[in-house]
Amino acid sequence: MERAELPPQATHEVDVLSGAVRVALAGEFDLATEADLAGWLRQAILDHPGLDLEVDLHQVGFIDSSGIRGLLIAHRFAGEHGRAFRLTGARGTVREVLEIVDVYDMLTGQQPTSS
Amino acid sequence: MSAPAEPTILVVDDRAPKRYLLNSWLTRAGYTVAEAENGHDAMEQLQRRAFDMVVLDVKLPDISGLDVCRWIKNDPERGGTPVIHVSAHATASADRTIGLVGGADAYLVEPIDPHELVATVQAVLRYYQARRQAEQLADGLAQLADTTLAVTMAGTFDELLTAAASGASQLFGAAALVATESLDGRWTAALADGPVAMHPWDPPTDKVPIGSRIQTGTAGEWNLAQWPSDATVTVATARLRADRPSLYVAVALSADERETQLLAQLTQALGAAAEAQRAQDSDHRIAITLQRSLLPRALPTVAGIDLAVRYEPASPEAEIGGDFYELSLHDGQLLIAIGDVVGHSLHAATVMAEIRYALRAYAIEGHSPGHIVGLIDELMVRLIPGELATLCLIVLDPQTGRARMANAGHLPPLLIADGTSTQLRHRAPLLGLNRPRPADLEFSLTKGSTLLLYTDGLIERRDCSILGRVEELSELAATVEPDLESYCERLLTQLTSPPNEDDVAVVALRRL
């Protein structure tokens, strides 16, 4: 219908690298897509036992606090399953937002994952 | 819609005496008859105008009647015209079969009995009329379903009325008006006569019965301003319950039985959709009222400090947010806080209330900002795990202007002194993660300088860099009006364009 102006769709692609499973995200992540995001990342961890999780954001144009919560949920889930979580490719406003709430270093693995 | 005229039948035969006979039999039976001498003549006449039926000789001098029939049936505009074949020769059943397979609706063989001809014409026309009615009904129901979907998808009352009026107008091929009362007690009508126009409307004063009702009248009687014609108006009303407002649908036609039925169905569906919209608006209003009740009821009066706060709700279509602020005096120290709970819902508002009360409780105990933030962080991880919030907390001594600040993932406050604004950057993780925190930031609020705290609703735009927007705010905020209320108002006007997608909270404070 005319009024359903959907935001750019949020999508993901899963690739297996050596030692890690990479989930490449694309689009915009907010309240509407938070559950999808957390679900995809969780599934990637469960489907690839023994592999670390790499989350590639270079095709993500927007993320808000709900999207960040999706990443943090996956980060904790990876930790609970003994896997490393590594964020890559965050750029522009996505990186700015991650830095403002000060989780960029933690998610990119530049800080120890537990305090 | 006008009453159907007598059916018009085209008789096609190359023999004049037979045309004369067929014509007189059909005329006597009440039909209007036109004649064609051959296949081309028939096709020309059929292209000029529509007929309700064609009585077609199989054997024509120029083209076979069977081919003319096939041409009629394959033509998208004329395909629905019934055809009765007449044949002069005693025909084998195979010939009759070919005629019927070619699309003819009946096949009569000479000698033709006039009664049989008329009975056959009546039977075929009856069948076609029933089929047309069924098709019209199916079209009507499909359009009804489209309109119902469009009104259900509407986000606001005005959108709902617009979709309803334009759907009704399309459904009946006439001007249509839909009117009802919104939650705030206003009566609005949407008139669709081409484009849709909205205007206030005074409903008739008579009591509307529960259920649905169909009446006719004139535009004047129904108080229909700008109505396109003086002709009859059919007005349907739907009222779901005695304590609920009714909904009116007026269409510029005198409805037949089928249209009356469709109008009643449409009106009931629209009445239900309007009721759902009112319920949704009411839920939103309750949520906002509750959320507001969780925010400070009054601002403290502090000697030597001027304060202003603005809280703009998100648009009614958006869910309520979790923005909050706090301003209170504890042992002569002014506690200033602003924050935003992640998520949009009443739940976020309740988390906001928990954080705000914890904040006040720890402040009363006299802790430093960083210590308070750390305690709240730990409280959240233990008691409401999974919730996240940003918070910026400042404790100010109004006497000396000495201030200590602890941030937790919130946007940097601005300090405006001597026409220059500075972002107070203090990077620390948001609440709910229980991560290590840096030491507090200490600064001084000199006399005449201003502090501005805000939530992301003021600056966030999907197509802009967030740091760029903070810069923009920083420039606009460098000039401070003598009246802080006007200052906040200007910033909101310059930076946001309602309806807002998100809540906006702004706190401004000046040391006199």
TrEMBL record, chain A:
SUPFAM superfamilies with a match to the protein in the record: SpoIIaa-like
GO MF assignments: anti-sigma factor antagonist activity
Name of one Pfam family that matches: STAS_2
CDD domains: STAS_anti-anti-sigma_factors (cd07043)
Domain STAS: 10-115
Entry protein name: STAS domain-containing protein
TrEMBL record, chain B:
Response regulatory domain ranges (all copies): 8-125
InterPro entries membership: Bact_Sigma-Reg, CheY-like_superfamily, PPM-type-like_dom_sf, PPM-type_phosphatase-like_dom, Sig_transdc_resp-reg_receiver
Source taxonomy: Bacteria, Bacillati, Actinomycetota, Actinomycetes, Micromonosporales
GO biological process: phosphorelay signal transduction system
PROSITE patterns: IQ (PS50096), RESPONSE_REGULATORY (PS50110)
UniProt-recorded name of the protein: Response regulatory domain-containing protein
GO molecular function term, any single one: phosphatase activity
Keyword terms, alphabetized: Hydrolase, Phosphoprotein
Organism: Rhizocola hellebori
Annotated positions of the 4-aspartylphosphate modification: D57
